[in-house]
């Protein structure tokens, strides 16, 4: 028994940053919007007891309940894919705000090089810099075209930063708020990287340096540097999140309604248009259809891809033939870095999610790759996010991992260890992709998404090179012992690495090599939009959210345009 | 090895006392009565809290919620103490109440795998694919602790709790080296789970029953729940701050 509801102008699947931005922009234009959110409502008052490492950072209070739905994984096509039974490598979110609630707030614009990576790489290094197995492509949009949308997102979120990095693309405006406090730990990094001839700058932060009112009239408070950002929500309303910005902006128009506990299971399609979304009430398991003029997939990139696959919209990528685009170019990130052990104690337990300094001297194509066997690179940063005692037990090499020596060393070094870490760009490879699993299902009976992923030679070379650079900075910072990260071999889904998963619903300039056009409009259904980090044709050397926010504003503009004129927007 | 002797005497005392390890008497650990170093030199230059401040809201009654017999709980306690032993910095796992923390966790969502994907079919898989067992964590723990006891008998003809520290370490190392057969889980996987649970109990907020008196935090120099560091974060000085639990919040 399926209940069909009244038709609305726009329905979004998921209410996080992308769903919130689209709801706010469309509702302000007078469009009636419904947001389907499978999780619960939450707001700042839900975070009054959030300084609890065990509950939030270890037991994943804010994350997806994997007993209901997970993904399956294998390193390559020869292996049997098996479910990710417990959370590890990346942390899928759940609930209002999505990952935008528990992000650290490190907010970047991808480099001009990223958007034209294939043409720029070929122009400078020739066609054979990387083998044809690496499925590089341009994004169908340039940095300059996307700049106004970057600016919009930064102003909505009130990003705190300084526009002093020589490697960035042109900016139309300064950051809305000044950078965060340059703490003694950050100053060590600044001095060392300047000594080495690099150009350090304060990391752009969504934990705000001062109280800020955004153009929609929403206030974001000043960060208190309490040290509980990633995996946590902010009890001060000082970390820009959807539930304190775009969601209330949308609700105040009177044109936006959120349906909670609504888990989308299918996008309904007739001919070359979609008609609405079928969802299950997660409390009663009743089924509903929400008809809409426009459907927007705004969930995490994995669920965006999964919904298209189960709804049979677009062509599934097949690595055997190279045909199809859906699920193609799944990319992740690699984490080169180095730790340093010092003699003096430092206030490592203080901090904020995006409190840091960065050098971009080895990111993108900011350095010459002629004599290197890889392309791109990583931003290298020191961050002071607030180290907590359960997960922070640094011990010098050759120290046992338990017992008397472990206890002494881990306690001694907890306040005496710093790390310089990189976010290594991840190049797409023909064997890294997403598809539907043939065996395992979620509790609604829908197949799980299947990841086939492994690190590549490009990844390993980049990791080794950047780890050496990170170790050089740490050495210059005066650490008495410097330990570089171990070389990477095969991707392992168990230890936490990063929640920067990208690809699968690529944007591009042609239906032959992408899922959506540069308004994030689906090539096969003109009233279907898909937006998120899934649109990335590869993964860059930064956190993805700033670029995702820009794409969401671009998408909102496309939807508004489409609502007036119809048709394909490009 | 004076320390080992201390462990012996402590264990012997506890074995014959009929009081569960780490039991509280009037807010102080039994361990405190037998030469442990709970309130003395607890590192990080902190003073013991005045009565009625940090102890507010702590339980004065401790019982078991998951384990049904004291034998398994005693094995758990002694093994946890080997992972995180008492030393001159301060208490070990027993003194911090870690065995009680683990018992409570095993009785709840953690032990029951409430948020894990537990649907079949189950296959072994590659190590890069992670945990692929149909066992719940609390089943792994029971099996692992019983195996520790069996190994103690097989190797030394003694109960696990009667072994000296070196012998206990030998058995724990056999788990860590993945040398022991367990059903539905590798001994290495169980060892990692166990080690992590001990650290969680040592350093989680005291509201969960471990990190007794916040001594885990005191040893480490972590101030726990503090509202703000905005006025301290630019200082070059290392800040020694009396820790606070979220259990002491005034809502």
Automatic annotation (TrEMBL), chain A:
Keyword Iron tagged: no
User: InterPro entries from the xrefs?
Assistant: FAD/NAD-bd_sf, GMC_OxRdtase_N, GMC_OxRtase_C
Task: Tell me the keywords, alphabetical order.
Answer: FAD, Flavoprotein, Oxidoreductase
Q: Name one Pfam family in it.
A: GMC_oxred_C
The residue ranges of the Glucose-methanol-choline oxidoreductase C-terminal domain are 428-552
Please state every residue range assigned to the domain named Glucose-methanol-choline oxidoreductase N-terminal.
Answer: 217-329
Q: Which family does it belong to?
A: Belongs to the GMC oxidoreductase family.
Q: What is this protein called?
A: GMC family oxidoreductase
UniProt source species: Planococcus shixiaomingii
From TrEMBL, chain B:
Q: Does this entry carry the keyword Heme?
A: no
Q: What is its EC number?
A: 1.-.-.-
Under the heading Pfam families, the entry gives: Gluconate_2-dh3
Gene Ontology MF: a single term: oxidoreductase activity
Q: Where are the transmembrane segments?
A: 12-34
- What class does this enzyme belong to in the EC scheme? oxidoreductase
- Is Transmembrane helix there in the keyword field? yes
Which InterPro entries does the entry link to? Gluconate_2DH_su3 (IPR027056), TAT_signal (IPR006311), TAT_signal_bac_arc (IPR019546)
Q: Which of UniProt's keywords are assigned here? A: Membrane, Oxidoreductase, Transmembrane, Transmembrane helix
Q: What is this protein called?
A: Gluconate 2-dehydrogenase subunit 3 family protein
Q: What species is given as this protein's source?
A: Planococcus shixiaomingii
């Amino acid at each position: 028994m399926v209940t069909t509801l009244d038709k609305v102008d726009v329905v979004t699947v998921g209410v996080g940053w992308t769903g919130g931005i689209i709801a706010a922009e469309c509702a302000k234009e007078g469009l009636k919007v419904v947001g389907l959110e499978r999780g619960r409502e939450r707001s700042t008052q839900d975070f009054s007891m959030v300084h609890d490492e065990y509950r939030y950072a270890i037991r994943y209070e804010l994350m997806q309940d994997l007993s209901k739905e997970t993904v399956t994984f294998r390193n390559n096509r020869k292996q049997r894919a098996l479910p990710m039974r417990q959370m590890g490598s990346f942390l899928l979110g759940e609930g209002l705000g999505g990952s935008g609630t528990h992000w650290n707030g490190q907010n970047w614009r991808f480099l001009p090089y990223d958007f034209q990576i294939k043409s720029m790489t070929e122009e400078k290094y020739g066609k054979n810099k990387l083998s044809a197995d690496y499925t590089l492509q341009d994004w169908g949009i340039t940095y300059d075209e996307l700049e106004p949308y970057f600016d919009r997102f930064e102003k909505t979120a009130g990003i705190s930063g300084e526009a002093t990095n020589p490697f960035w693309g042109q900016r139309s405006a300064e950051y809305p708020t000044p950078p965060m406090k340059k703490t003694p730990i950050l100053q060590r990094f600044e001095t060392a990287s300047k000594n080495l001839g690099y150009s350090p700058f304060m990391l752009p932060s969504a934990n705000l340096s001062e109280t800020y009112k955004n153009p929609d009239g929403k206030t974001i408070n000043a960060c208190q540097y309490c040290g509980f950002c990633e995996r946590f929500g902010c009890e001060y309303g000082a970390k820009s999140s959807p539930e304190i910005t775009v969601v209330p902006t949308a609700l105040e128009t009177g044109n936006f309604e959120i349906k909670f506990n609504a888990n989308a299971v299918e996008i309904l399609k007739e001919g070359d248009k979609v008609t609405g979304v079928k969802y299950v009430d997660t409390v009663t398991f009743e089924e509903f259809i929400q008809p809409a003029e426009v459907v927007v997939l705004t969930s995490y990139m994995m669920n965006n891809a999964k919904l298209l696959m189960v709804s049979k919209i677009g062509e599934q990528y097949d690595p055997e033939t190279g045909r199809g685009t859906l699920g193609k170019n799944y990319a992740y990130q690699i984490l080169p870095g180095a730790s340093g052990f010092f003699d003096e104690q430092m206030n490592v337990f203080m901090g904020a999610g995006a409190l840091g300094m960065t050098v971009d001297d080895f990111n993108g194509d900011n350095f010459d790759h002629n004599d290197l066997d890889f392309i791109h690179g990583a931003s290298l940063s020191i961050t002071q996010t607030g180290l907590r005692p359960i997960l922070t037990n640094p011990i010098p090499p050759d120290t046992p991992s338990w017992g008397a020596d472990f206890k002494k060393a881990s306690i001694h070094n907890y306040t005496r260890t710093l790390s310089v870490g990189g976010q290594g760009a991840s190049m797409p490879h023909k064997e890294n992709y997403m598809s539907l699993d043939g065996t395992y299902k979620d509790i609604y009976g829908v197949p799980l998404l299947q990841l086939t992923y492994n690190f590549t030679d490009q990844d390993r070379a980049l990791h080794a090179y950047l780890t050496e650079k990170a170790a050089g900075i740490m050495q210059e910072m005066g650490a008495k012992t410097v330990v570089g990260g171990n070389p990477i071999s095969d991707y392992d889904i168990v230890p936490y690495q990063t929640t920067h998963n990208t690809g699968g619903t690529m944007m591009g300039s042609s239906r032959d090599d992408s899922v959506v056009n540069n308004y994030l409009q689906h090539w096969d259904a003109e009233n279907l939009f898909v937006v998120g980090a899934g649109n990335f044709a590869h993964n860059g050397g930064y956190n993805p959210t700033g670029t995702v926010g820009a794409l969401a504003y671009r998408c909102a503009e496309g939807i508004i345009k489409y609502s007036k004129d119809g048709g394909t927007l490009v | 090895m004076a320390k080992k002797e201390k462990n012996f005497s402590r264990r012997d005392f506890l074995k014959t006392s009929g009081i569960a390890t780490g039991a509280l008497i009037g807010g102080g650990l039994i361990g405190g009565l037998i030469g442990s170093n709970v309130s003395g030199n607890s590192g990080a230059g902190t003073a013991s809290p005045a009565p009625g401040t940090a102890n507010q809201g702590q339980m004065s009654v401790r019982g078991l919620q998951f384990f049904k017999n004291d034998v398994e709980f005693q094995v758990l306690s002694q093994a946890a103490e080997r992972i995180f032993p008492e030393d001159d910095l301060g208490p070990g796992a027993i003194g911090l109440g870690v065995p009680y923390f683990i018992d409570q966790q095993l009785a709840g969502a953690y032990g029951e795998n409430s948020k894990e994907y537990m649907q079949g079919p189950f296959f072994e898989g590659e190590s890069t694919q992670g945990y692929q067992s149909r066992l719940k964590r609390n089943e792994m723990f029971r099996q692992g602790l019983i195996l520790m006891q069996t190994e103690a008998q097989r190797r030394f003809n003694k109960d696990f709790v009667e072994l000296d520290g070196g012998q206990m370490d030998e058995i724990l190392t056999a788990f860590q080296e993945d040398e022991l057969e367990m059903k539905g889980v590798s001994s290495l996987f169980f060892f990692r789970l166990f080690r992590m649970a001990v650290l969680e109990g040592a350093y989680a907020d005291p509201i969960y029953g471990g990190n007794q008196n916040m001594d885990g935090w005191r040893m480490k120099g972590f101030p726990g729940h503090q509202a703000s560091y905005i006025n301290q974060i630019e200082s070059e000085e290392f800040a020694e701050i009396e820790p606070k639990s979220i259990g002491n919040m005034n809502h």
